Amino acid sequence: MGLSVKNLSRRFLYLLVAVFFLSCAMSISASFARAKGGAPIYVGSDMCKGCHESEYENFMTYAKKSTSFKSIERVRKSLTEEEIKGCYFCHTTGYGKPGGFISLEKTPHLKNAGCEVCHGPGELHVKTGNLQHIKRKMTVEDCESCHTSERVKAFRYKPLIHGGAH
To answer: Nearest to residue 118, comparing CAs of 101, 152, 141, 148?
Structure first.
């Protein structure tokens, strides 16, 4: 019951073809799972830098929110853990949303209020480069999820939607 080189080669080829189709099926399945309701995830502002270098540099230099987690660290001692978590909604990227900030240990790349706070989760935009996967036209309403009238008075907020620091 010897196997010839020809039979071994044929079996190896079948195995390769099977592995190829299985990997394709798994990839397609993952794509459909995302399309059926899996929300795109947050990738962090550093992922924007490669294609949007000047916007990224301006944002990091001039936008206070690019270092917003410092505000939490500054007042941490006087707050309870629940109060601190309340700060995360506005001072981090995507807190409470799929793929958003969880903790400094698990998601350090999302610790500040980055590009995706305004433009939305960047996963699909980064993968495809398609502009339809990212929000481009900001309005004051976009800012008001964090910058409520009470916070405007308390923090002297000035909307930068027309420049956005970039």
So the answer is: 141
Q: Are 99 and 41 in contact (CB under 8 A)?
A: yes
Q: Give the separation between CA 45 and CA 49, rounded to whole angstroms.
A: 7
Integer Cα distance of 28 and 164 in angstroms: 37
DSSP 100: S
Q: How confident is the model at residue 145 (pLDDT cuts 50, 70, 90)?
A: confident
pLDDT of 90: 92
* Domain that includes residue 16, residue range: 1-38
How far, in Å, CA of 109 to CA of 120, rounded? 15
CB neighbour burial string for 68-88, b if at least 16 within 10 angstroms, e if fewer = bbebbeeeeeeeeeeeeeebb
Residue 10 has pLDDT above 70, yes or no: no
The CA distances from residue 24 to 18, 19, 35, in Å, are 10, 9, 16
Does 94 reside within a domain?
yes
Q: What is the domain count for the chain?
A: 2
| More confident call, 107 vs 148 | 107
24 pLDDT band, cuts 50/70/90, is: very low
**SS3 of 37, please?**
coil
